[in-house]
Design brief:
alpha/beta; seven-stranded mixed beta sheet; seven-stranded parallel beta sheet; 26 helices
Length: 699
């Protein structure tokens, strides 16, 4: 169903001039995906990162030393290496202002004699250096007859490479693929094009692969911005179509008398924040409306999202319907169940846990309760997706930590019942641009306050050379009744990474503190994880050595010390999540960022920001600025888009405009049948957001 205009671009890379089977296999590994090999479009979107200035200097004397230089010169002499001695083959070239020695190691003298005959004038380009006070160029990159000077670009693009493809080959095949780009129908709004001085799509592609200067390859040009906007627009049109399709599905109004919610609120040991009250009101309004709810509940660490979710599930129970809360890990699912069970019980609700570990009679009992409606709330992991899990009347699906689940998974969960409302929660504050990118099909509620009584956390960066001092400080904290987390990046020692392993740190700390030290990591069997966590919660162990398995959701109020070893290797958002495990009780809390120097500029900036603020939203923006969107939420694992051209960290203004443009387009032309709508279909296929086209056909 792909428009035929795009066929040349979506052909295999081996159809591009200069790409044979051997090179095709290299490109498959470099630019292809698990599902398919590299295509011409992948080469077209493989953009240069810089450019080499090959503009000719007026003379040898004016050619820049220490940089790439290009000049015309006459060949005056060949000097082969002396017989029996090692050394380069030298060719002397000169003009009226000076001379340059061209040095060739392991040279083919016959080839050099043919290419550089004495008396001939040649255009020569390469790195010009001084050697023993004389100008020298080792292995010139270009040697051309002046008649072919037109083939040497003034600014030669430099493309990212992979093993098996050199720079000249990469340039040749990428530009051959880009030449396949057809004249596209215009999918952008004419006024927006004119306002931003955007060129046509094909013109922009040509400009990106034939930069007019170095800045054009490295900087933020109108050509790159044009293609970036196209990519963002494709994403936003797809999201708008998804949203429209979901909203079209007839919903069921879920309303209750408020009785269960009142009992839960009365049982809470704290007052709800204004942010929680507003989020609860918005969610209840959505649920009472006869359209499916798609809402993102975004809040910083400890902002009270779980209580908001419980109040939503209580509203479903008041209407005689069921809810499900899905967590990304077994540890977090069990913790949710343990924390919610007392409140649910006081309110007269039946809550059950379902993970992959529940077997036999216990599992059958839960499945029967879900099927006959005697269970009001199910808490679990991805096991809730499985066939054989059926609900009597599922009203609400709550997905915790959305970035661990793809869009398809949240829709699949919503398909477990008739017109299921979906509430997505994340404790990873998301920059506004990424919220638009990943959750453009959802309404958003934000919890910006923390519950009353939360103590600030003192954060310090400490060199790993002061390890013994840190251990001493931990000992004093334990004597005062505190508990501590000690987080390591890896489970076992690595031959390639100089990082402390959880297993090794556990053993060294046990030598000091004995049985007070526990161990928790993702490779442990589920029951052992539960036992390790239970021992720490009960205070039987005082130090929990862990990997990042404790990053999300784990809540032990008495834990007031966090040591993050090799903190320089963690991203900002992850450091913030880990730090959020403390500061939940009455004691003052301390987070020690144990780093191994010397620190690079990015690592140093991360640790500085962590010391300066606990504001997760500021940290998220800084994380995006320092790392770029590709790493912020882990796009490969999340099912979120991988961008070819767009860079949300700098294209935020374009993203907002693309969202507005997409919504307006779908409002005016919901089936994409107008000339611009037809062009938008081409755009969706070009940037592989064509799943939205299938939604159009389904609708």
């Amino acid at each position: 169903m792909r428009p035929s205009i795009l066929d040349p671009l979506f052909a295999a890379a081996t159809t591009v001039s200069g790409v044979g089977p051997k090179l095709g296999k290299v490109l498959d590994r470099f630019l292809g995906s698990e599902a398919q090999g590299a295509r011409a479009v992948d080469l077209m979107f493989h953009l240069p990162t810089s450019a080499i200035d090959r503009r000719p200097s007026p003379s040898i004397a004016e050619a820049p030393i220490g940089d790439v230089a290009t000049f015309s010169a006459r060949v005056t002499e060949h000097r082969p290496a002396p017989a029996g001695k090692k050394g380069p083959y030298r060719v002397i070239v000169e003009d009226e202002t000076g001379d340059v020695t061209l040095a060739f190691f392991h040279a083919d003298s016959r080839h050099l004699a043919q290419n550089l005959p004495v008396g001939a004038v040649r255009l020569i380009s390469g790195k010009l250096e001084l050697w023993d006070g004389m100008r020298q160029m080792v292995h010139p990159e270009r040697i051309l007859d002046p008649k072919l000077a037109y083939t040497l670009p003034a600014f030669e693009p430099v493309y990212p490479l992979t093993e098996g493809i050199g720079p000249r080959v990469m340039t040749r095949i990428v530009q051959a693929a880009a030449e396949r780009c057809p004249e596209m129908p215009e999918w952008q709004d004419p006024g927006f094009l004119a306002k931003n001085d955007f060129p046509a799509f094909k013109t922009a592609i040509e400009a990106l692969h034939h930069p007019a200067d170095r800045k054009a390859a490295e900087g933020d040009t109108v050509a790159r911005r044009r293609i970036a906007y196209d990519e963002l627009l494709a994403s936003q049109i797809a999201l708008a179509l998804v949203r429209r399709q979901q909203k079209k599905i007839a919903g069921r109004a879920t309303t209750g008398d408020g009785g269960i919610r009142s009992r839960i609120q009365a049982a809470l040991p704290f007052e709800l924040t204004e942010g929680q009250r507003k989020a609860i009101a918005d969610i209840h309004a959505d649920m009472a409306h006869p359209e499916k709810m798609l809402r993102l509940l975004q809040g910083d660490v400890g902002s009270g999202k779980t209580v908001v979710a419980l109040m939503a599930m209580a509203a479903a129970a008041e209407a005689g319907r069921q809810s499900v809360l899905m967590a990304p890990t077994e540890i977090l699912a069990r913790q949710h169940a343990e924390r919610l069970a007392p409140l649910a019980q006081q309110a007269g609700l039946t809550l059950a846990l379902l993970t992959g570990r529940e077997k036999g009679a216990g599992r059958r009992q839960v499945l029967e309760g879900l099927a006959n409606g005697s269970i009001d709330i199910a808490v679990g992991t991805h096991a809730l997706f499985q066939e054989g899990v059926a609900f009597h009347d599922l009203a609400l699906a709550v997905v915790d930590e959305q970035h661990r689940f793809g869009v398809h998974q949240r829709l699949l969960l919503g398909s477990k019942g008739e017109a299921v409302d979906v509430l997505v929660m994340t404790a990873t504050p998301i920059p506004r641009t990424l919220a638009l990118t990943w959750f453009g099909d959802m309404d958003v509620s934000i919890l910006s306050e923390k519950p009353a009584g939360r103590k600030p956390i003192v954060t310090r960066a400490v060199s790993s050379e002061r390890y013994e001092e840190v251990v001493g400080a931990i000992g004093r904290a334990l004597e005062s009744g505190a508990q501590a987390y000690w987080v390591c990046p890896l489970v076992q020692e690595s031959d390639t990474l100089d990082v402390a392993a959880a297993q090794e740190r556990f053993e060294t700390l046990r030598e000091v503190f004995g049985e007070k030290v526990g161990l928790l990591h993702g490779q442990m069997p589920g029951r052992d994880k539960d036992a390790a966590m239970a021992a720490f919660v009960a205070g039987e162990t005082r130090i929990l050595v862990s990997t990042t398995v404790i990053e999300v959701g784990v809540d032990v109020p008495n834990a007031s010390v966090m040591v993050i070893e090799h903190a320089e290797r963690f991203g900002l958002a992850q450091l913030h999540q880990l730090r959020g495990r403390i500061g939940r009780g009455q004691a003052a809390s301390t987070c020690l960022l144990l780093y191994k120097g010397p620190l690079g500029p990015v690592a140093e900036a991360r640790l500085t920001i962590m010391r300066e603020t606990e504001d997760g939203f500021r940290i998220a923006e800084e994380d995006l600025r320092l790392r770029g969107e590709g790493e912020v939420l882990g796009t490969k694992q999340s099912g979120s888009p991988d961008w070819c051209i767009a860079r949300p960290e700098i294209d935020g203004d374009l993203l907002a405009a693309a969202r507005d443009d997409a919504r307006l387009l779908i409002e005016r032309d919901p089936h994409l049948e107008s000339p611009r709508g037809q062009a938008a279909r081409v755009l969706l296929y070009l940037f592989e957001r064509d799943v939205a086209i299938r939604l159009l056909r389904a609708g």
